[in-house]
Amino acid sequence: MSASTAVLKAELRLFSREPFSLFWIVAFPAVLLTILGLIPSFREPDPGLGGSRVIDLYVPVNVLLAMIMAGIQALPPVLSGYRERGILRRMSTTPVRPAALLTAQIVLHFAAALFSSLLVIAIGRLAFDVALPGHLPGYLLALLLGALGALALGAAVTAVTPTVKATTVVGSIVFFPMMFFAGVWVPVQAMPEVLRGIVEYSPFGAASQALHQAAEGGWPDWTHLGVTAAWAAVLIAAAVRWFRWE
User: Fold this and answer.
1) Contact predicate 187/58, CB 8 Å
2) Is the dihedral of CA 224, 226, 229, 233 positive or negative?
3) Which alpha helices (H) appear in the chain, and where do they start and end?
4) What is the spatial distance between Cα 80 and Cα 155, in angstroms, rounded to a whole number?
5) Contact 214, 138 (CB under 8 A)
6) Per-residue pLDDT tens over the stretch 161-181
7) What is the pTM of this model?
8) CB under 8 Å to 7, separation ≥6 — which residues?
């Protein structure tokens, strides 16, 4: 067994013992979608939304919410905790490099968010008759870029905060605006035109629009994909530039 595989298996055992993290990543988006789907008016076609139902719009939003929960709320305290306790510094003196641990954490959080996304899509289809994504390649690309941006943002938050407490506070401050941009409070498609035009240039506003377009059966607008990819690249560069092992 390679050192990286051993680290991944060890981190998987530790990750499975964190029920609160798993709840917020895996269960919360599905629970939120179920609650919204039980509102009768959300299951009725809305002329103001081009005949779509509100619940149709919230499936891509909750898919993106799973990525945001994993990247901004769950991942940063773990990485910051390892750094604060000196685990990353001690690993740097062993054949197992700290990057192996960071990679394992990113893989596990992405896998949990992906499972949550599949659960949300399944609930939307089986419980509320929401159509499956009409353009699967475009949907997967938008999902991947959104996840990359969320995980990169979480890593950047970890990079600029010195302690676990600071990471938690900053992560929470960042989290709520990102939920708004993703359309959790109000779907991006239902926002006033001026506000929508602004939100679409945020990382998760663009990702939300790209997911919605792919869900409707079309290839996502290249502008939305480009904005999401650009934000992910900037956040990755910031995390790499400022991250410290100790």
Assistant:
1) yes
2) negative
3) 3-16, 19-22, 28-37, 54-68, 75-84, 87-91, 98-128, 136-160, 164-182, 193-199, 203-215, 222-242
4) 9
5) yes
6) 989 999 999 999 999 999 999
7) 0.89
8) 96, 100, 101, 104
